[in-house]
């Protein structure tokens, strides 16, 4: 049981505690560490199989190795700092001299270099010693398990105090039977369907036969005296079953929380959409947890030390393939980070695009959502590559080339793109607005991230770059409301009744149903000026809909023409006086 508790503590330390405490490790005393290493070697030479002492030495050596690795990292950073100091202050050029600062830097550098070499040497030597300790512990545990004690029937007949051994036997038997019985019932339980496990009759029968054999073997070993082996097998069965059930519970909880249909519905994506991010999240999470459980089981069941170390090295340190370092655990962590950022990004894109500011604007929602999705995807890729250990220095040349291309060749495209984002966010114009820019009047049909499409009054499509809409003045006729000012200019004869003309024009404006008549927008008539042979009057009014402005102007002009004819108001035609030279015709 102690070994089981120790393994669980080791797993907890590796997953939770070690990442937090790794940077707080104390400095190593190389002299004491080397002395302790010699003591361990001397103890191994005596070939004493003291299991507890060997495990204590292994724990101590692993702690010292961690301290040595921390020493290497710190010393490397200090040497780098010293080199930077030399370069910045110019002391590297003074080392040949006898200045006090140069001598101090030189001595400091030599001290750190000796410390670094000592720590590296200790790491290499301790690694071999740790492997030797693990092999001795493995052999000692195997020999300890195969030790034969007094059979159970002899203990019962023995008159000596044997209550402890009997209690151990009863405990092992009860625990074994209880575990086997619970596992025996698993195939017949309905809730197993939730774990997506299907039991056929043949598989269930084979499964129960294996359980019965395991129970008989454990109890038989306990009866004939192989008590340590029976306890080892019962604890191993308990650990295996516990980890198996824990993994199935994790899978069940994950499948319950991360339900694809619900998540697709919440982010407004059809069911035909393949939610790859969710599948990657489940795969990476289950694979990480399963890998830790797998290593724990391998260590418990006494896998040879070399094989166990090779598996750990493959999973945690990886292998180099064609010059590329591939670390499986880091790749799984990178997939996990990538999928989490992607899922969070999709929810963020939907949340922002559904704000009241963009309500009823499907095109704008799509553009905003797509933009956020692209940005989040870039962040997810960079985050995944960073976690996987990708070397970003190889991308420096590519990034420099892209920056030059953006600054030169793609300048207009970037300018239009940024201008499109400003138009979509600030919304000085919206689809359906009536605007005028550079003498072009029409209706905004569509605003994209690069250009804006305008339909003129003649039903002509005009594509305008977004940068022009930002840089040039725009007249938006419906920015606040749809009201529009209407002006009708008319000429009358010089001898016309001015009051009658003014009254007639006001009555015409008041009769039209689309002309506003309120204190702020009351129609007015003004004598605009004097022409050569006429008086110029202007009727000014406000119409309710700017889109009907030209139709209303035509209707008012027709009403003016009819009213002037009824009231005998003359609109003079242009007059031209011709003078004939008689002498020209006579000659």
Highlighted features:
587 residues, single chain, 4 domains, 64% helix, 3-stranded antiparallel sheet, 19 helices, alpha+beta, 5-stranded antiparallel sheet, SH3 type barrels
Can you give a write-up of this model?
The protein is of the alpha+beta class. The chain has four domains: 2-145; 158-388, no CATH class; 411-476, SH3 type barrels; 484-566, Alpha-Beta Plaits, CATH 3.30.70. The protein is built from 19 helices and ten strands. Helix 6 packs parallel to helix 8 and helix 10 (276-300) runs antiparallel to helix 12 (328-353).
Question: If you compute it from the alpha carbons, what radius of gyration comes out, rounded to the nearest whole angstrom?
Answer: 45 Å
Give the termini distance in whole angstroms: 142 Å
Based on Cα principal axes, name the global outline. elongated
**What would the average pLDDT be, to the nearest integer?**
75
What is the domain total for the residues? 4
Structural class comes to: alpha+beta
Number of helices: 19
The biggest beta sheet, please? 5 strands, antiparallel
Sequence of strands across the biggest β-sheet: 6-5-4-3-7
Unreliable segments of 5+ consecutive residues: 11-24
Q: Percent helix among the residues?
A: 55-70%
**Which range does the strand content fall in?**
5-15%
List the helices and strands in order: HHHHHHHHHHHEEHHHHEEEEHEEHEEHH
Quantity of strands, as a count: 10
